[in-house]
Design goal:
By secondary structure, this protein is mainly α. It has 2 domains: 35 residues; 95 residues. The chain is built from 6 helices and no strands. The chain is elongated, with a radius of gyration of 21 Å.
């Protein structure tokens, strides 16, 4: 069944998966004039945003557990270490499939750390001043499964 661009635009609103299938079919068959380019471009831009958000989300978890590990040594648990390993793995996997995300990761560490510091205060009930103002971990340590701060 062939679909016009206006039908594809309507399909985008009604059934995203079907829209994806139809769009892929148009691209594979080189029917470029029939592709819903506006929504396709929007989706590609959204992919980039989601990749960045996912990377930030995993970074926040790693930073939070590193802070808790360092500043609450009496409460260190295997689940914290397991969480560190898992979220580091997710970050490394994203960087492996999109190496250019490393620059993005480096650029957001300080911003993420600022919010993590407040979250660590809330979770640990320690004074905010306990946690360094600037991120005490470099990117290599953040990604290194062997790194646990003292």
């Amino acid at each position: 069944m062939t679909r016009s661009i206006s039908n594809l635009q309507q399909l985008y609103e009604e059934d995203y998966t079907l829209w994806l299938d139809a769009t892929v079919e148009k691209l594979r068959s080189s029917n470029y004039n029939e592709v819903d380019w506006n929504n396709l471009i929007e989706e590609i831009e959204d992919i980039e945003r989601r990749e960045g958000q996912s990377l930030e989300s995993n970074l926040v978890v790693v930073l939070l557990h590193l802070l808790k590990w360092q500043f609450q040594p009496e409460r260190q648990t295997g689940s914290w270490e397991s969480s560190l390993i898992e979220h580091r793995r997710r970050i490394r996997r994203a960087l492996k499939s999109s190496p250019s995300l490393k620059n993005y990761l480096v650029s957001v560490v300080d911003e993420c750390y600022e919010s993590v510091r407040k979250q660590a205060r809330a979770e640990t009930q320690l004074s905010l001043e306990v946690f360094p103002v600037n991120c005490p971990y470099d990117v290599e340590d953040i990604l290194n499964d062997e790194f646990l701060p003292d």
